[in-house]
Specification:
4-stranded parallel beta sheet, DegV_C, Hypothetical Protein Tm841, Chain: A,domain 3, 281 residues, DegV_domain_contain, alpha/beta, lipid-binding, 41% helix, globular, 6-stranded mixed beta sheet, DegV family protein, 11 helices, Rossmann fold
């Protein structure tokens, strides 16, 4: 029976300890500034991205790994007799999924299974952890891929951003929306729905009010949560993340609540001081 290795990309923002413990392969996306292109989490840190954006007043572009990047990552596993399940960033947000499919086509049929997570960040991480546990139990790559495809609709992902500036600079809200939002201190609550980022609430006032609203929505679903793992993700929002972690520990029966740091690509789109909740139901 073949060993199954689980892969994802850098937008899963998996903690290093998880990657090491479960031997999870990561294919990085790219952060592209005018003076250079950098591998997410390998050649540049989120703090460096925010510093450059503040200094330059312009966002970097982000780019998917090429098919050649995926082939180079997958080849050693396939050559060693293993099979692969790769869980990608939502195909609605990036060409990462399509490039992974192209790469998979260069290997014998059935050796590389590519799954569209239809989510990002901690939402992908939840699916990856389900996959690595299934692999440890000896399930086949085909069975694991099918399980992930069935599970992805159960992932809930919500975010609160601290500023509309990054969404505006990235073309995700108009200049007038940014101007009015800044004046009124409107904090959007964003949710992943069918693989796309959708604003589900606009909370006026302090960011804490928006975070509390996101928490209330999660707690309303507490009885239906998958109790194995819940993820709090953030970009330099330690206090908000700690508040959510404490409240969720006290008010849910989830076995593990992990706090993770979102990486460069996620941060390039939502900005610093963003905080999110990801769980399965």
């Amino acid at each position: 029976m073949s060993i199954v290795k689980i892969f994802s990309d850098s937008t899963s923002d998996l903690p290093q300890g998880w990657k090491d413990t479960y031997d999870i392969g990561i294919v990085p996306l790219y952060v592209v500034f005018e003076d250079g292109t950098f591998k997410d989490g390998v050649e540049i840190t989120p703090e460096e991205v925010y510093h450059r954006v503040a200094a330059d007043g312009a966002l970097p572009k982000t780019a998917a790994p090429s098919p050649a990047d995926f082939i180079a990552a997958f080849q050693p596993v396939i050559s060693g007799g293993g099979d692969i399940v790769y869980i990608s960033l939502s195909s609605s947000l990036s060409s990462t999924y399509q490039n992974a499919l192209l790469a998979a086509g260069e290997f014998p049929e059935g050796r590389v299974h590519v799954v569209d997570s239809q989510t990002l960040c901690g939402g992908i991480a939840l699916l990856v952890m389900k996959a690595v546990r299934a692999a440890a139990k000896g399930h086949t790559a085909a069975d694991i891929a099918a399980m992930v495809e069935q599970s992805r609709a159960r992932v809930e992902s919500e975010f609160v951003v601290d500023t509309l500036d990054y969404l505006y600079m990235g073309g995700r809200c108009s200049g007038m929306q940014n101007f009015i939002g800044s004046l009124l201190k409107i904090r959007p609550v964003l949710r992943l729905i069918d693989g796309a980022i959708v604003p589900v609430a606009r909370v006026r006032g302090k960011k804490e009010k928006a975070v509390e609203q996101m928490l209330r929505h999660a707690l309303a679903n507490a009885d239906h949560m998958d109790k194995e793992l819940l993820i709090v993700a953030h970009t330099l929002a330690e206090e908000d993340a700690k508040f959510l972690e404490t409240a969720l520990r006290e008010q849910t029966r989830v076995q593990e609540i992990a706090v993770i740091h979102a990486g460069c690509v996620i941060g390039s789109h939502c900005g610093p001081a963003t905080v999110g909740l990801m769980y399965m139901h």
